[in-house]
Amino acid sequence: MVNIKMTIQYDGTNYFGWQRQRKGLTIQATIEECLRKIFQKEIKIRGAGRTDAGVHALGQVATFKAELRMSLDVLKKVLNSLLPDDIKIIKLENVEDSFHPQHSVKRKSYIYYLCFDKECSCFIQRYVWHYPWKLDLSLMEEALSLFKGTKDFTAFSGSTDVKNKVRTVYDFTMQPLTKLCFMDMCLNGNFIKFRIEADGFLRYMVRNLVGCIIEIGKGKLRIESIQEAFESGKRPSIMQTAPSNGLFLEKVIY
């Protein structure tokens, strides 16, 4: 019996998130079904964390244990041949039994893409938040620093049973872009790439932080409201949760 670590990419558009559930197609259940076909038995996988419905991943991590009678290269090829096109195993490796995909995590990073043009290309609408309004980018940049450090993020989390809501945000950046490129094409426009790295994230935390920054840029929320929210533990009165389609789990750091 070996402990196998998977690094996974997926387009979350057609899924109800990572975690297996009774109703709705999920990433975890889809991979487990393919493993069941390969090993002819139920195989449970454990992920580094949940991603919500519609959220994508460039480097999700999960592990499973199995009696392996083929090389990891062969297993990877077989597994990818069974998986749908919007899920891809990019790496398999043996790890110690003590390795835990969630408890061993030191940091995680997420990326969020925003398009604030009046019109947004049909080729990227699945991967950006289309918000066609004028934004004060300098004010948004100023607000980012207020989220850095070790803080109680109760005011910026969704409903959760997690009792300890203190997290350390190591980095939170905002990069204006004039084009997004993929394959050999570049789409011109006005975009923002947010990147946040922390020791962990609460439910909806990244989407709430992005939503808060956008409200500040739109002039609907005072920048002082951020500190007030941290002190009170209450969600700012004017703040939306950014839609899931612009969010990517970038990487998990061990």
Give the C-level CATH assignment of the largest domain: Alpha Beta
Low-confidence stretches: none
Count of extended strands:
10
Characterize the main sheet. Answer: 10 strands, mixed
Helix content: 10-25%
Rg calc: 19 Å
Q: What percentage of amino acids are in beta strands?
A: 25-35%
Which structural class do you get from the secondary structure elements?
alpha+beta
Please name the defining characteristics of this protein.
single chain; 254 residues; alpha+beta; Alpha-Beta Plaits; 2 domains; 10-stranded mixed beta sheet; 5 helices
Describe the overall structure.
With 254 residues, the chain is of the alpha+beta class. It has 2 domains: 2-95, Pseudouridine synthase I, catalytic domain, N-terminal subdomain (Alpha-Beta Plaits, 2-Layer Sandwich); 107-253, Alpha-Beta Plaits (2-Layer Sandwich). It is 22% helix and 33% strand. It has helices at residues 27-39, 72-82, 137-144, 205-218, 224-232, and strands spanning 2-10, 46-47, 56-66, 87-95, 107-115, 129-130, 149-152, 166-182, 185-198, 247-253.
